[in-house]
Design a protein that fits this description.
This protein is of the alpha/beta class. The protein has 11 helices and 11 strands.
Amino acid sequence: MEKTEQEGELVLKDLCLICHVSPPRYRCPRCALRTCSLVCSQRHKRRAQCSGVRDPAAYVKRSDLATPAGIDRDFNFLVGVERHLDRAEQDILQRKLPPLEHVGPAKGARPGRPKAEGPLSSSIRRAGVTVEHAPKGLQRERENRTRWHQQQQCLSWTVEWIDDTSRRSLVSAFDTLTVREAYERVSLQESQRPRKRRKAEAMKVVPTEDVERSITDESTQAERSERASNASPDMHFYLLRPRTAGPDRVLIPVPSTTKLSDALRHRVVLEFPTFYVLPHPPHSLPAGFVSEAQPSNGFIPEPAEGVAISKNRSTSPSEESSQAADPPDEDKSAPSVPATDVQHILRMLAQDVGSS
């Protein structure tokens, strides 16, 4: 009798721990529970809230490492890592993201030796331009086509132009061109339409409303092209200064006859320069804009790099000391209203920056 009970107990232990009917065929990778079918495995996951995924950080005895089960566990872990990398590369190709950057030195490079500077970076450094790069994958980073033109031996900048109607245009221009000549390339780019596209549009039958809309768009485009090519002397060019502290956009006045290389020297650009073409002079800019020479709303611009501080002084140090020693007589009865001297504030800030 006792022998029969022991045999029954042994048989019960050898059955599936969920249904207790069939012998187990599978083992849970997470908790090593043995089940007989997919139904029992799913029931186990719901009851025990088990994920069923092997934990690669779980403790394993040293004696279990060189076993078939331990080798199989390590092999499955490496296969899973490779599968995740393949999925990441496919996701990058589908979403058109920049490729993954490989960590570590380049092949053939000596350890501890800095990477050689490319022709574009060295040319930008020699031109005296500070380029702040946007994060990978952003629109401005993908639009940047600035390169070193080997044939012309000059920089080919991607230049962003914004007119008074907030219309944005991107063109490529050599840094040897003047600002006006670079702006005229906007009209040249809009006038050069692909022949295949014009032929397809000529053969395509479109409704009357689309024809009228296309005629209107072409007339508007022609007007804008004519405005860009025949830029009147009343149009003023401004270089946008990025990442300023004030709420208004700080514009740097640039003469139309200035070369791009001279306009960008000792300046900071975000990926590529941005120019505003406005009919307003620097002293009467519209709301939301402020000239670098005329700060507003408490914003005080920093002096440009490479510009001597003594050039901004209107008086000599001896005159300043004499003015400080002999202050003008003040009427004590009248209320004292401090006068704001912008140039004096700029000089004081420049001296503080130079001394620090």
